[in-house]
Write a structure and sequence with these properties.
- The chain is an alpha/beta fold.
- Helices cover about 30% and strands about 20% of the residues.
- The chain has an 8-stranded mixed sheet with strand order 1-2-4-3-5-6-7-8, with helices on both faces.
- Strand 7 (about 175-180), helix 8 (about 190-205) and strand 8 (about 205-210) form a beta-alpha-beta unit.
- The protein is globular and about 50 Å long.
- The mean pLDDT is about 95.
């Protein structure tokens, strides 16, 4: 269904509802370097089996509009969802959010803005100023994902880069966050989630970190049962109600 029209196209979301409603809501934000990807690709539908309503949302890509268009679209999607809670069968309280890679960065920004109840971020880039030191091909050269997101190099757009970096926006008012990162991820280096972890803890925020051994960037190792169990413990703790699950195999 369409939740907004921006830059000449309709932005859409999918709603997946559990058997029992009203249900706590989780918004899913897909990855793809802010330039590609599909809201249906994250493989997180299993959350419905634990009693959650799931909204898979999309946002404009960097070739359509540069930052902050992407986070603006996510805010609009959340607002649309909260205005349609009674119609579609989820609770009217703030949702939690789960994002992967580029979507994880957007999920963390929503957390720093206090717009969500909690956030889970897989493989998320968190600090573009730091990233320009370790991966300048992504931040300083045309075609680099961060360069294209910001519309220019980080070093020439430091204020915007900090605005887009969750690590630079962590505060005591940040929603609880669970960072998940693989030890073999060479695409988003380990210093990225560690930057947010350090900034969040320094600010007094509720931030935890889960390492997935041998996991590269995204992929099936993040969907192991023990990882899901850790996510469920985190989400249940911050949910509007205690859930039992899964309700389906």
């Amino acid at each position: 269904m369409v939740f907004a029209e921006r830059s000449g196209r309709a932005l859409q979301l999918d709603l997946l509802l559990p058997a029992k409603t009203p249900a706590p809501l989780i918004a899913i934000i897909h990855g793809g370097g802010w330039k590609e990807g599909n809201r249906k690709d994250e493989g997180l539908e299993w959350l419905v089996g634990y009693g959650y309503a799931v909204a898979r949302i999309e946002y404009r890509f960097s070739w359509e509009a540069t930052f902050p268009a992407q986070i603006e679209d996510c805010r609009v999607a959340l607002d649309w969802l909260l205005r349609h809670d009674a119609k579609y069968g989820f609770t009217s309280d703030r949702p939690s959010v789960v994002g992967t890679s580029a979507g994880g960065m957007l999920a963390l920004l929503l957390a720093t803005e206090g717009l969500v109840r909690s956030a889970v971020a897989y493989c998320a880039p968190c600090d573009f100023v730091l990233r320009t030191k370790s991966q300048p091909h992504l931040t300083e050269l045309p075609g680099g994902t961060v360069y294209d997101l910001l519309g220019g190099p980080v070093t020439s757009n430091l204020a915007l880069a900090r605005q887009a970096s969750p690590s630079c926006r962590a505060s005591i008012s940040c929603a609880p966050v669970l960072l998940i990162h693989g030890t073999a991820d060479s695409q988003v280096m380990h210093d990225q989630p560690l930057s947010f972890l350090a900034a969040g803890l320094k600010a007094g925020a509720d931030v935890s970190f889960l390492t997935v051994p041998d996991a590269a960037h995204c992929g099936p190792l993040y969907h192991q049962d023990w990882v899901k169990a850790h996510i469920m413990e985190f989400l249940h703790h911050h949910s509007t109600r205690s859930l039992q699950g899964p309700t389906s195999p």
